[in-house]
Amino acid sequence: MADLEEGARVALRNVGVTAQEIADFERRVDTPTRGLLLYGSRARGDYLDHSDFDVLRLARGDFHTFKARRLSVSTYSGEQLRGASDTLFGTHLVRDGRVLFDPEGELAEALDQIVPATPNALLANVRRYSMILDLPTSELSGHLPGIVRLTRYLLRTAVYARAMLQGRPCFSVRELAIRFDDPALATLLASDTELLAPVSPALLDELTSRLVAIVGPLPHNRFGSLAATAIAVWDTDRNLAALAVRAGSEGEDDADSLDYSDLPKVLL
Length: 268
What we know:
Blueprint: H1 6-14, H2 19-28, E1 35-39, H3 41-44, E2 53-58, E3 65-68, E4 71-76, H4 78-82, H5 88-96, E5 98-101, H6 106-112, H7 119-129, H8 137-142, H9 144-165, H10 173-179, H11 185-188, H12 201-215, H13 226-233, H14 238-249
Parallel strand pairs: 2-4
Antiparallel strand pairs: 1-2, 1-5, 3-4
Helix pairs in contact: 7-9, 9-12, 9-14, 13-14
Protein name: Nucleotidyltransferase domain-containing protein
């Protein structure tokens, strides 16, 4: 366990993180915290009372993601953070992130080096990764929770990219639901599990049809299963393989699993 500097504790308390959540945080980390960045709805100010505090932690080593009650923490090194250039995650951090603690200026320096993503490149990647969803009905039903989660992740990215194409980047699904006059987006794409509809074939159909409407028909998956896809592309497209593995192994209601938004952020 690594003690958290008092400046970091104060910064977390000032944005509403409780003393118990901070104590839980400290019990989960083994290396010094070199920077803290708040992002997501708490940074934008459009949060709900039960919304998580999404925090990026800058450190050397000890790279894992965890939750401490409402506190959701992802740990990155400076090198990993600079690798978020040309990704939606990096664009989001630069646009909406709020630096809470940065005693040596390392976090600000890494953020300054992030190059924002281009919407057309994001949409091309979403279409490429959506090949995973072209599966037999038996495979879809056998891995329904993970595939629903993957489809939501891809659709959320596509919707964000669509907003960027309009010249008005936005990372709030509630705001985008209003902008696009599509109230269903606020729950279909929510990160808050309390707002999500139960997993079902009908939900997967709706998410998939919306994805196709933005990026076009799903590319053909000639491998026939998630496992076969991961094996076939492991040496040529590790990100695609990682998504296939995750879709086949995670349950939507597994409280200990990570959402796709918590994957290594270099994916999208």
